């Protein structure tokens, strides 16, 4: 038992160490591309013919143009920090830390310490907070979700190409869409499952189980970009996380702690958006675990069962709809045949 506990602690420590590797690898990813291009250009010492020289210069020009148009990892990282930290998070902190106290002090100067001050502020304070949330925080939060998803994918693609080469996608487009939808559904259900763990009778145990869920979920978020590019299907990804859960608990632990410091979900979301790109790079650079842990943790099993049931129900409804409207499906098939004949 002591050997198992020691191995578990070592895997957790390794996961924590690997989660910080993205900071060390960040600047090197962009330098590697420059080093490869300069080394390839200085590699040729033998004399070239005029035609070969022209082809070489054209090839170098094309490669330089491609490298300059391709998004750099560090550039995307800085954009994530500037958008989520500089614009979004800073505006919330300024509003709550400067504007609201300043207006409250100004109203206090006008009405003094009378009861009128408390009545006026009881109306003005909540109205300002609601207006700020409705007109600024909510639209910017929704826009940030869209922008961050694009930037996260950009960072993951650039890091994968520069360290592992061409992605190996799933064989068909239908499998890709089904995998993405199933993964999003499963992750949403797993987040709900982890949130409900807080309401367990023993508070400390509930918080620990909820933290365990968030660590595994953040690790799955970070590694999923690489695994998807490697052609791993969702069930293989989940089985790998469950079989090596101590490592992935340690990998997601720093981000889970950072995003639980504030009581505001919006502020925690901003912190997540600033730190998570580093976890994507760390997951891309992390070496695979050769030995699986002897005691797998099947936390994803309940949500997998629910997700499968939802998918099977949706497939049945689709089949029933096709049987209920055979003329439409027959006409669609007839149109496809006519198009193929043309």
TrEMBL record:
Q: Which InterPro entries did the record assign?
A: CysZ/EI24 (IPR059112)
Q: Name one GO cellular component term.
A: membrane
Biological process per Gene Ontology, one example term: macroautophagy
Q: Enumerate the transmembrane spans.
A: 86-107, 127-152, 173-192, 198-223, 244-275
Keywords tagged on the record: Membrane, Transmembrane, Transmembrane helix
Say if the entry is tagged with keyword Membrane.
yes
Membrane topology of the entry: Multi-pass membrane protein
Q: What is its main location?
A: membrane
Its annotated compartments are: Membrane
Family per record: Belongs to the EI24 family.
Q: What is this protein called?
A: Etoposide-induced protein 2.4
The organism is Ridgeia piscesae
């Amino acid at each position: 038992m002591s050997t198992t506990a020691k191995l578990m602690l070592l895997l957790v420590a390794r996961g924590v160490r690997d989660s910080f590797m993205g900071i060390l690898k960040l600047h090197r990813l962009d330098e590697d591309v420059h080093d490869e291009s300069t080394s390839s250009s200085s590699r040729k010492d033998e004399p070239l013919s005029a035609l070969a020289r022209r082809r070489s210069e054209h090839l170098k020009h094309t490669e330089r143009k491609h490298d300059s148009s391709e998004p750099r990892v560090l550039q995307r990282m800085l954009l994530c920090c500037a958008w989520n930290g500089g614009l979004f998070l800073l505006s919330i902190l300024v509003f709550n830390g400067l504007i609201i106290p300043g207006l409250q002090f100004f109203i206090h100067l006008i009405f003094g310490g009378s009861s009128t001050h408390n009545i006026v502020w009881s109306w003005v304070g909540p109205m300002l907070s609601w207006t700020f949330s409705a007109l600024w925080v909510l639209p910017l939060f929704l826009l940030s979700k869209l922008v961050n998803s694009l930037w996260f994918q950009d960072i993951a693609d650039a890091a994968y190409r520069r360290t592992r080469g061409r992605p190996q996608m799933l064989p068909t487009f239908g499998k890709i869409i089904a995998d993405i939808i199933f993964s999003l559904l499963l992750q949403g259900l797993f987040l709900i499952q982890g949130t409900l763990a807080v309401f367990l009778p023993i508070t400390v145990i509930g918080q620990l189980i909820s933290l365990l869920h968030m660590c595994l979920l953040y690790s799955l978020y970070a590694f999923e970009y690489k695994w998807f590019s490697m052609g791993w299907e969702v069930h293989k990804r989940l089985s790998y996380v469950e079989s090596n859960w101590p490592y992935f608990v340690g990998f997601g632990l720093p981000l889970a702690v950072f995003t639980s410091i504030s009581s505001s979900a919006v502020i925690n979301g901003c912190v997540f958006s600033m730190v998570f790109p580093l976890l994507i790079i760390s997951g891309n650079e992390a070496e695979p675990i050769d030995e699986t842990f002897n005691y797998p943790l099947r936390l994803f099993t309940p949500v997998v069962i629910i997700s499968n049931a939802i998918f099977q129900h949706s497939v049945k409804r689709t089949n029933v709809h096709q049987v209920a409207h055979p003329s439409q499906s027959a006409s669609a098939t007839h149109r496809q045949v006519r198009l193929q004949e043309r």
